[in-house]
């Protein structure tokens, strides 16, 4: 049956596809206007967070004398309130020595005083990532940066510090306790920082602030504390050359960069070295001063202050001991229950002692055990004064690894100088011979980042025979 033309038109329109062109559709005349379909609101995309460039990729370059002079002059202007002048001076210092971190921080302070908050934040940001233990407390407390802290730029820096602190905690948990060191003049290293070394990334992460002029430092994530030791050394007095006249010790909790009560001891005659035992609650300092008697003087450093202690006592579990004198520093880290008796290693399991090389006898020992408890390493060092063939101290060492399951020891190194050895949390063995540290993977080992050591190396003075 054929449909009338009008009915055919309505049928075709009813059968038309839903996406047909609007020109073929008659506009509605009797319906109310329809509201447009709601459009989905697109959330603003946050910029990706850059990974934290934590720590240092090498020993900072030496700061030139001109840069130091420029920084010193700028500091005088800054303290006098001449901030434009100080900013120019700090900028000159940074230009002369781009790795001069302290001058860069000072430049940020000057920028903040001038209201140049973007520029101040730009200078501070890399410092907070490379060395948070040194510059985070300064950022949070320095009066020069008050305006920056209260501004959006400061809020962004504080937000970034959450990522930095998290990265630092991760690094502390998996890194090798070590120091970054560069030799200096007049008994003190030019660079000395305590922290952890990340071998895969070839980066060193400082965990405690610097103590200028310190001879030794160490940070122990396992104990949660770090220490730096500084000696006041006089080159020559009477027949003692050199001579220690004072000892300064600073101890930090690793989760709080503010130091505990500082320890200072000043002798009227001389101090024959200092021994610092680091523990989870602080540190114990022992020293010998002939001017006050024959007994060892002992002091305890904790969060509540400094107090006298009983000689031979303990500061809780002290698994890291630093011996410091005018010759340098030595690390005496002993795993709990392990000790060397003669030339055998006594273990806490009560089993038969393990024979070591005879050369281990009569020395000072440092014993480290791998995280899985299957291996140990014994580094034994000795120093003596040679006054017949030549005048001065002689240091020698012997290092052995021990398979605790088979009860067998293997001597891996021996020679003149000093040595130290330790395992990292992942079980890799590191051995320091003199001023060289290697990851021990075979006969010679794999070199680590230049300037990273387990402990500052001992260096001999010109005279130890009193002549």
Key descriptive features of the protein:
alpha+beta; five-stranded antiparallel beta sheet; 8 helices; Serine Threonine Protein Phosphatase 5, Tetratricopeptide repeat; 26 strands
Topology:
Blueprint: H1 5-15, H2 65-79, H3 83-96, H4 101-113, H5 117-130, H6 132-141, H7 146-149, H8 152-174, E1 176-182, E2 191-198, E3 203-206, E4 216-220, E5 225-234, E6 243-253, E7 256-259, E8 263-271, E9 274-279, E10 282-287, E11 297-302, E12 305-308, E13 320-325, E14 328-332, E15 339-341, E16 344-346, E17 354-355, E18 364-369, E19 375-386, E20 392-403, E21 408-416, E22 419-423, E23 429-433, E24 436-439, E25 446-447, E26 452-453
Antiparallel strand pairs: 1-2, 1-26, 2-3, 4-5, 5-6, 6-7, 6-8, 9-10, 9-13, 10-11, 11-12, 13-14, 15-16, 16-17, 18-19, 19-20, 20-21, 22-23, 23-24, 24-25
Helix pairs in contact: 2-3, 3-4, 4-5, 5-6, 5-8
């Amino acid at each position: 049956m054929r449909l009338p033309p009008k009915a055919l038109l309505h049928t075709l329109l009813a059968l038309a596809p839903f996406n047909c062109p609007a020109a073929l559709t008659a506009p509605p005349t009797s319906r109310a206007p329809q509201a447009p379909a709601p459009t989905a609101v697109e959330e603003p995309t946050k910029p990706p967070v850059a990974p934290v460039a934590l720590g240092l990729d090498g020993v900072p370059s030496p700061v030139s004398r001109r840069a130091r002079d420029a920084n010193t002059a700028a500091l005088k202007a800054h303290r006098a309130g001449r901030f434009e002048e100080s900013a120019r001076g700090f900028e000159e210092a940074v230009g002369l020595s781009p790795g001069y971190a302290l001058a860069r921080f000072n430049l940020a302070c000057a920028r903040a005083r001038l209201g140049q908050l973007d520029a101040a934040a730009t200078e501070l940001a890399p410092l907070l990532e490379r060395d948070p233990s040194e510059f985070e407390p300064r950022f949070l407390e320095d009066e020069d940066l008050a305006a920056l802290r209260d501004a959006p730029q400061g809020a962004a820096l504080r937000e970034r510090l959450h990522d930095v602190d998290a990265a630092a905690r991760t690094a502390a948990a998996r890194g090798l306790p070590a120091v970054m060191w560069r030799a200096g003049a007049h008994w003190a290293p030019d660079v000395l920082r305590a922290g952890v070394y990340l071998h895969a990334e070839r980066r060193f992460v400082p965990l405690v602030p610097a103590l200028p002029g310190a001879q030794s430092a160490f940070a122990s994530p396992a104990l949660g504390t770090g220490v730096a030791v500084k000696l006041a050394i006089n080159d020559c007095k009477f027949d003692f050359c050199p001579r220690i006249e004072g000892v300064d010790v600073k101890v930090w909790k690793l989760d709080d960069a503010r130091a505990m009560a500082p320890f200072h001891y000043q002798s009227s005659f001389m101090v024959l070295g200092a021994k610092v035992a680091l523990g989870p609650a602080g540190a114990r300092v022992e020293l010998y001063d002939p001017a006050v008697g024959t007994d060892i003087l002992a002091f305890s450093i904790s969060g509540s202050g400094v107090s006298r202690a009983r000689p031979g006592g303990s500061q809780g579990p002290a698994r890291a001991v630093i011996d410091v004198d005018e010759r340098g520093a030595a690390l005496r880290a002993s795993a709990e229950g392990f000790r060397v008796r003669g030339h055998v290693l006594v273990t806490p399991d009560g089993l038969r002692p393990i024979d070591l090389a005879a050369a281990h006898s009569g020395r000072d020992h440092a014993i480290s055990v791998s995280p899985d408890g299957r291996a140990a390493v014994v580094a034994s060092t000795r120093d003596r004064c040679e006054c017949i063939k030549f005048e001065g101290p002689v240091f020698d060492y012997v290092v052995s690894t021990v398979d605790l399951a088979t009860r067998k020891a293997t001597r891996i190194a021996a020679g003149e100088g000093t040595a130290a050895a330790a395992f990292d949390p992942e079980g890799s063995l590191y051995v320091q011979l003199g001023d060289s540290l290697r990851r021990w993977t075979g006969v010679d080992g794999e070199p680590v980042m230049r300037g990273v050591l387990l402990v500052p190396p001992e260096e001999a003075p010109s005279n130890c025979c009193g002549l």
